[in-house]
Structures are given as structure tokens and as C-alpha cells.
User: Fold this.
Amino acid sequence: MEIAVTHKNADFDAIASLFAAAVLYSGVVPVLPKNVNVNASAFLSIHKNLLTVHHVDEIDLAAVTKLIVVDVNNWARIDGADQLQRIPGLDIHMWDHHPDSPDIRANRVIYEPTGAATTLLALKMREVGIQLSPIHATLFMAGIYEDTGNLTFPSTTSKDATAVGYLLEQKADLSVIRRFLRPTYGPRHKDVLFEMLKSAKRLSLNGFHISLNRISVEGHTPGLSMVVDMFRDIMNVDAAFGIFTETKRDRTMVIGRSAVDGLNIGSIMRSMGGGGHPRAGSAMLKFVNPVALEEWIIELVNGTQQSSVQLSDLMSFPVFTVAPDTPISQVAALLMEKGCTGLPVVEENKVLGVVSRRDLTRVNRFSKPTTPVKAFMSSKVIQISPRSGVNEAARLMVKHDIGRLPIIEDGRLIGIITRSDVMRYLYDLIPD
Ligand SMILES: [Mn+2]
Assistant:
């Protein structure tokens, strides 16, 4: 007997890879693990007549001669691994995208660090020229979309997008995908989200905007991470933390979500005994005071190494400046000559204002060219410290609609950061 297996608690990528293996290897039976996540099992249940599934308990594992392992590379994550490992001379093919070191010894390994495992199987189908049914194409695309966040997660590769292109050609149905990938948002989630929004607190810590929330929940509530995700989105903060206490069982679940590079949720959660990856993580703690937990999170965020790039690495210096009494004609000439769009107005090392080309457009034919720049400068100076991160600088620029920020240390102007410096950083164009 020839079967395909995947990891426990199978998600769409796992299920899609399983059925993709059955398409690529004729005669291979896809075998489901004991647990399948809610969304994927809803999909399977609706398509029961069209997608034949076998459960691991219905299979005589000892009779397996060939094993296709998909979306996993570790025996510990496979149901029935004990029996499978005991089969002598078992022919194993493994299709996987997980970067961690595998402990399954396969005769053939198809590995690439793509966003989804399904991508590897779909590209093989494309290469061989397989025509898919729309249902298969839809399922495979759901697998790729789920694991790559609709091709938006940083793990997404061009291969994932190519595979999606192929699946769309094969008539994958986007509206079906939307329906099944939508999180299961029920009345309890709504109540929790509402509670969180009512007591929402925004904090500015270590250059990050975060939101923290303490909520009591009764009983096991699955899907809280989705609520924290929605909450972060609504609050539009860099990171959100939900502290959910189940008073009866004296335990507290901390869930974190981050939308920025510098704030690593995984490492914060590991400090609390939990785990996760840079954008998402959680920790379960027993017998702790939720207030103390809140303080602990604040401490951990404060202790977080900001993204390794600080403004002092990006800023331009020395800064061209002008004195407040400089005539505007001279300022205009200087802006042209230096090719910059604005200059700080400085007196005795103190920044009094900033003048930009935009300010000079207010100069009209009635103004004398000798008018001092201080009459036209913006005297509300938004400044920033050299130890701040790029996110903070970008936020200030957007908030105040300005293109440059003087960088001030100990009251002295030491550099300037401009919109184009920030863009260079965001698009990874920093020269080495
Ligand atoms: Mn996967």
C-alpha cells in the first residue's frame, strides 16, 4: 500500500499537499492525521463526495510500502510514526518547506524554503503539464494562501506566486477560498474583542506603539489569537498583547501579535516560557498575577533590541544649516545648490525651525528677497533622537507631513533624516 501523510493538526497547506501528492503519485492514498484544523476540516466536509479521505486509524500501517511525507520533516509530528518507522526498507519521499533540520530519512527529498509546501507539488504538476479539476486547484491555492497570508508574509517566494498563477489558470475559485480561509469569528470572539476595545490602552514603549489588554475569560476559548490579530489591526499599533485569565483554573494565556520587524514576539514569549515566531506567539502561565504579567511584558518590550539599524546609521551629516537672519533669496539659492528640499534654521547650535522648498512657495512678489528666513520657516520643529528606530521616524514624518527630521542629541543638532533615507531603508537599499 502506498500512502501520503502530513503533520498533526493539519492546516490547509498540509491537506492541500496531501491531495497534491495523490495527484502526482498515482495509486497513493492520502491519509489524514487525527486532528485537522477547523477551516480545513470544514472544506473537507463540504467536499466529502469529491475528495476521498482516509483516516490514520482506518489504515493498516504495517502494510505500507511507500510513504509520501508532505509539509513536515519530523517523525514526532506524524500520527502513526512509531509503526511507520518500524517498516524495513520503506520507500520515503519527502516534500517540505520547513527550514529546521529533518529527522526523517527519505530516499527522495524535495525541499525548498518556499512560503508553502503545496507550492513545491503544484510547480511539479505545472512542469509535468497536469490538468487539474477546479476543486483540486482551489484546495491547493487555499494551501498556498493560508501559509503565505495571501502572498503577503515575508516567507513568500516568487515560486509561491508562480504556483498561484498556475492554479488560477487551472480555474481555482477565489470566492470559495475567501469563504474557507476566513477565520471562524463567533459571538464569543465578538464579546472578547468588544471587551478589549472598551478597555484598550495604547502605550509608547522603546519607540514602538503597543496595546496591552487584560481580559478574563471563562473556559477554553479557541481562536483568541485571531481576536488579538483583529484587535491589533483595529488599533493600528505595532504590536498587541492580550492577557486572558481563566480565574477558575488560575491560569493565564498571553497572546502577542506584531506588525513590525524590530519587535520580536517569539523571543518575548520564549522569555515567558512560551514560544512563537517574530510576528506571533503565545505563552501559558499558571498562578500568576495578570497585573504583574502586564508589567513583565512592558519590561520585555523595553528591553527589546530595536531593529539593528538606528537612525544614526542612516542620517545624513554634516547638516547644511542656515542662520535665522539669512535672506530668503540666499536660502533658495542654497537649496538649489545643495539639491535638498529643506534646511534646518539654526542659531548657536539650537534648531529654531526648518525651512523647505514648500515654505518658499509662500514667498510672493511682494516679499523682499532680503526678508530673513525666520519669517517663512516652520518654527514647530519635530525632532528625533539618534537612538530611535526607523519606524518611529517614518511615523513622525507621516503624522506631521514633513520630509525631514533633525536628529538631536544633548540639545545639539548632529544629523538629519529625510524621507528618502527612510525609503532607502524600507526597500533595503542601504549600501553595505
Ligand atoms: Mn506548511
